[in-house]
Amino acid sequence: MEIGTLVSADSHLVEPPDIFETRLDASMRPRAPRMELTIDANGRGQHVWTLDGHMLTPLGGGAPRRGARDRENRELRALWSELDPAAYEPDAYVVALAVDGVAAAVVQPTAGLVWWRLPDSALLDALFRAQNDHMIEFCSRHPGQLNGVACLNVDDVAASCHELRRCRELGLVGALIPVHPGAAPPYRDPCYDPLWATAQELAVPLCLHLATVRASASGPTNSIASTTALSPAARSVNDYWVRLSLAEIIFGGVFDRFPQLRVGSVEHEIAWIPHWLRNMDFIYERRQFLTGGWRSASGQRPSELFRSNMFATFIEDDLGVELRAHIGIDNILWGNDFPHTESSWPNSRAIVGDMMRGVPGSDARAMTNSNTARLFGIEVAPS
What we know:
This protein has helices at 19-23, 90-99, 121-140, 157-169, 193-202, 232-236, 240-251, 254-257, 273-286, 288-291, 302-309, 318-322, 324-327, 348-355, 361-376, and strands at 6-12, 34-39, 45-51, 54-58, 102-108, 146-151, 174-177, 206-209, 263-266, 310-314, 332-334. The protein is α/β, with parallel strands linked by helices. An 8-stranded parallel sheet has the order 1-5-6-7-8-9-10-11. Strands 2-3-4 form a 3-stranded antiparallel sheet, with no helix packed on it.
């Protein structure tokens, strides 16, 4: 089918090497991650983010090389000098979006997704404030086209509420919290209620992004796992943590207390959702000994609470599109994941067109444009 204007719910910027040198207090800089050059056994160099001698993540998440416009020329290994400026320079970024047929994007971090692995909570606070300041400045160059999200450290809920309010006032449209809080209380715990209340008051959607599980606050730094160690087996079940956290929120009665709160899955694809919804409804209706007899204040089943309060993004999930009625048309948001390895850029229009073959135009427009625009308050011309 003919695909109109696209709005991406999940795009990314690549952080510059000096982000912490220029944005952290001098006292914190020695503790911050740094970008370093490493050489592999074949003599190939790459820049990686490190902390205390441990690699945290390769540079750029596989961002395209300078001048490249094909999906095959991508790997996690990269040098900063090789990256296409569209990965980190806002003027070039919007040009790259236009090449992809994308009118506006919700912009997430890249290396910033990894910082939740750092057990030092005070350091995490400082890193996220610097990260958020960079995101604010980046998106301010093209307001409306670039719509940034904040990163929040939920170890200290009061502090996360303050940072969320600050970032919203400075123009960010959403916020990332860890896909699972790790050793901290699960999201069903009332200790998070101030955060839910603040997000509801500010109408800020909270995003649970792939690969953002919180490290133990008391764990050793050398327990940090590199993204390159993520096996194909682990990647094939990467929706585990988000299913667990979203179910904790539903069964914890969070939407009873905060009925206007919006929380969602980012970059876990969507075909897993119908089975997960059916299982939650089965437990709610026929396994009440597991729920302690809890019933939602609205009388809605878990699947209905998902459809009224949650969302999920996809990149290339044709099966998820096929199952859209079982998920909820209004809960599905497409994203191009630019400029990462898995991105559909610069071929998103063709890829989306293939996925939407046989899909009514109103459904296609909702999933690839209007749902994201409505959720994040983005004004775009009709597709």
